Amino acid sequence: MKNKINIVLTGVGGHGVITAANILGKAAVKAGINVYVSEVHGMAQRGGTVNCTVRLGNVSGPLVPSGTADAIISTEPIEVLRYIHYSNKNTKIITDITPVIPFTVSVGTEKYPELENVFQEIEKYGELYKIDAVKIAKNAGDIIVKNIVMLGALSALDLLPFKKETLLQTILENIPEKYQDMNKKAFEEGYHTIKKQI
Amino acid sequence: MEILEDKPGKQILLLGNEAITRGALEAGIDVATTYPGTPSSEIADTFSLIARSFTKQNKQPSFYFEYSTNEKVAMEIAAAASISGLRSLTCMKHVGMNVASDTFMTYMYIGLRGGHVIVSADDPSCHSSQNEQDNRYYALFSGAPMFEPSTPQEAKEMTRTCFEISEKLQSPVILRTTTRLNHARGPITLNKIQKPRKKGHFEKNPTWVTTPAIARARHPELLKMLKKAEEISEKIEFNKTINIGKPDEWGIITSGVSFNYVKEAAEDLKLNVRILKLGMTHPLPRKMCEKFIESCENIIVVEELEPILENQIKTIAYDIGADVKIYGKTTGHFSRLFEYNPDIVYRALSKIIDVKNILKTPKPSKIQLPSRPPALCPGCPHRATYYAAKKAQPRDVIYPTDIGCYTLGREKPLEMADLLLCMGSNAGTACGLAVATDKKIISFMGDSTFFHSGIPPIIDAVHHNHDVVITVLDNRTTAMTGHQPHPGTYFDGMGRPAKRILVEEVAKGCGVEHIEIVNPNNIKETTDAFKRALNHKGTSVVVSKAPCILLANRDKRKQGIKIPVYEIDQNKCRKCKICIGQFGCPAFYYGENNSIFIDEQQCNGCGNCVTICPFDAIHKKEDK
Asked: Quick check: B374 and A63 CB within 8 A?
């Protein structure tokens, strides 16, 4: 295991980014690994940008220094670029491919950049892996498990200092019985989608 | 509930705020009070969650908890409990301390018998606040002992210790946190949960009554207490020196979350330094500081916001005639503004000590990213109230506003928030604007804010016959901070039934002669009500009553009631843009051919857009 592992999770309010970061933290505690998690969220209940950091190993605080992220996991393409200062050439970047159009764009005051340009731009900064997490989540049963798809995807990176099973088990321990299958499916499909790309 | 597990030695992941609650439980907390405010809210919300789970099972929790009317009341309730020998905790955001400070400053004179921990959650960078005041000044101002945790684990340990020290010194103690501690999660090692004392005993004693004679007698006692506190500060495990590498002439003095950045930077930059990590920062351990200063030729002080440690360290260095250079805010290496992060600390330390900074920030992307500013939720009843008020008088109105979701009414297209100071300021400033200008004044505050500090300015308005329209946006919750109950709800923070106090009855009791009670989701009637209120010469109050859409929809889902979705009939739409350009619901967007659509994912089904569309182009999806 690396001395320090820095993971940045980003997305839009309502995507379950904070929940995902929290689950990662719980899995680390379960595996007996030192961990800090931080969450930053805007004032609105929904629609604002969300940024969490998870740091594992020999770390003394939750904030990730610029240029030191081992992975950036995003539930929305442009949100990767918003936090791209965390990246370096070796950063593995996984993003969902579905844009969430901000209100500022829908009312016509700002523009959402061309998606292809966004992906090309991300590739200049790190190793990009794209995933249709919305589709996978819907296939698994509900768009709400999109964050779990992303956790499955993250566990395919060979980065986490604990077993993929530990993460899945932590997820399942934190949700009601009736949603277990849906979450399992979402997690496994996320894992396999990225595993194939590596 | 994991946080209630009585398994000493077990590790669990907790939010800094939850860790404080756990620390209080381990100390045998009897009474916890608060007024909610980010970033402190989860401390109290965790007490509430525990209490409600007990109430649900018809059991008594081990402590009493309440969301008090405001921070001052919260502090007074807990103070009386501690004066009666119980252990109590009061938590609030930094600006809440301003509200409670009148109580606090004199409370410091009379002291207590049972431990009282006052948690101040400061918000450097104003993530969700109207200022970034440094509440460490309250410790210096009042004489209260103060602790500053760096990690969630330390927050829990300090909370526990604070109760003991508070009792030893017979003084309230401040636990001063910042957003980055409150909202960080980390592993916590559990200790045993102590049994609370349950019933206090108030011993009558003239010293509890701060007449001038008593106050004069108590002030020297406060200073004596500070002497004792300093002795504790010299010995406590939270104040210590940590060596990185082979320390030579350089020393760093730091506290709170800054310590985390300093430690990692010192390790990563391979510095040879000794770090004085201060956990109990008031009073400072003077002897320890003297010794540390004498061991260094150069000292860097790293602390967010005000140079509070820096100035004290300089004073001590002067007193002992130390030949030492002190770097920090006065030398311009650190800012008094905003919260710190690793980048800031790595950069400053490498510059001061003249070593290479290992952090490499990639060049920012040239792609212009659209912003995602916070906005009133789709279906928010506040939007409907705003829209109706604007319809009633479109021009020449000043809109004083207040602290809550409705501050977001400042954004386009509504732009109906013109002046904001603090909780309750809407109505006071409304009166002032009526005196100073010849404009119409419509002010806005939420229901929780009304109870918190909105009532005295209404009384002022009535008594002086100020010509203002004061609007209370009554959505039956404290929405912005996470839907806490308040005096206008049917239940309290422990989940017990509670007497609901009606805004309009209070307004009537204050002597308001013109009161309008409206449902903002009926926009036409609400507009008429505002027109009548504006025509009334003197003070009028509009109570706009509709539940927060997030709560309303949550209840609907629980009851199995379907939440409708609305759509636009493109054949009827004339693109007048009232829905998107004037009402400004974020569920609307421009799609193909610049036509306007409603995003089904975002629509909360309030249906107000149906009323405002002049061409009858919007309808429920199922209606088609």
From this structure: no
What is the rounded CA–CA span in Å between residue B479 and residue A45?
Answer: 10
Å from B338 to nearest chain A CA? 15
Q: Mention every residue, 6+ apart, whose C-beta is less than 8 A from residue A41.
A: A13, A18, A48, A50, A51
Please say if the pLDDT value at position B595 is more than 60. Answer: yes
Q: Are residues B115 and B96 part of one domain?
A: yes
Strands (E), A13-159: 35-41, 49-57, 71-74, 92-96, 127-131
Residues B74 and B108 in one domain: yes
Q: Are residues B280 and B395 in the same domain?
A: no
Identify the domain containing residue B609 by its residue range.
564-623
Q: What is the pLDDT of residue A42?
A: 56
CATH number, domain with residue B619 = 3.30.70.20
Work out how many domains chain B is built from and give that number. 4
**CATH number for position B537:** 3.40.50.970
- What ipTM, to 2 d.p.? 0.96
Can you give B181-246 as a three-state secondary structure string?
Answer: HHCEEEEEECCCCCCCCCCCCCCCCHHHCCCHHHHHHHHHHHHHHHHHHHHHHHHCCCCEEEEECC
Domains in chain A (CATH in brackets) are: 4-197 (3.40.920.10)
Q: To the nearest whole angstrom, how far is the Cα of B37 from the nearest Cα of chain A? A: 12
- Are A38 and B180 within 8 A, CB to CB? yes
Q: pLDDT at position B624, please?
A: 39
Cβ within 8 Å, pair A37-B185? yes
From the CA of A65, how many Å to the nearest CA of chain B?
Answer: 5
User: Which amino acid does the sequence have at B82?
Assistant: S
Q: Which two tokens stand for residue B448?
A: 């929780």
Check CB contact under 8 Å for B185 and A12.
no
Residues of A in contact with B382 (CB under 8 A): none
CB proximity A125 to B under 8 Å: yes
Residue B206 in tokens: 């003239």
**Is the Cβ of A2 closer than 8 Å to some Cβ of chain B?**
no
Residues B580 and B546 in one domain: no
CA dihedral B327, B331, B333, B338 (to 10 degrees): 110
CATH code of the domain in which B250 resides: 3.40.50.920
Is the separation of the CB atoms in A34 and A59 below 8 Å?
yes
Q: Which chain B residues in 166-195 lie under 8 Å from chain A, judged by CB atoms?
A: 180, 183-187
Q: Is residue B419 part of a domain?
A: yes
A93 touches chain B (CB under 8 A): no
Q: Does A63 touch chain B (CB under 8 A)?
A: yes
Q: Is A3 on the interface with B (CB under 8 A)?
A: no
| pTM (2 d.p.) | 0.97
List B residues 94-123 in contact with A (Cβ-Cβ < 8 A).
none
Q: Is A178 exposed, middle or buried (0-12, 13-18, 19+ CB in 10 A)?
A: exposed
Residue A41 has pLDDT above 80, yes or no: no
Report CB contact under 8 Å: B150, A61. Answer: yes
For residue B66, being part of any structural domain is answered with yes
Average pLDDT of span B445-474: 98
Q: What is the mean pLDDT of residues B419-447?
A: 98
Which pLDDT tens digit goes with each residue over B151-193? 999 999 999 999 999 999 999 999 999 999 999 999 999 999 9
User: Would residue B367 count as lying in a domain?
Assistant: no
Using the beta-carbon criterion (under 8 Å), do B368 and A25 form an inter-chain contact?
Answer: no
CA B126, CA B75: separation in Å to the nearest integer? 24
Same domain assignment for residues B403 and B456: yes
Residue B511 within any structural domain of the chain: yes
Mean pLDDT computed over every residue of chain B: 96
Q: What angle do CA B136, B148, B257 make, to 5 degrees?
A: 105
Is B577 found in the same domain as B530?
Answer: no
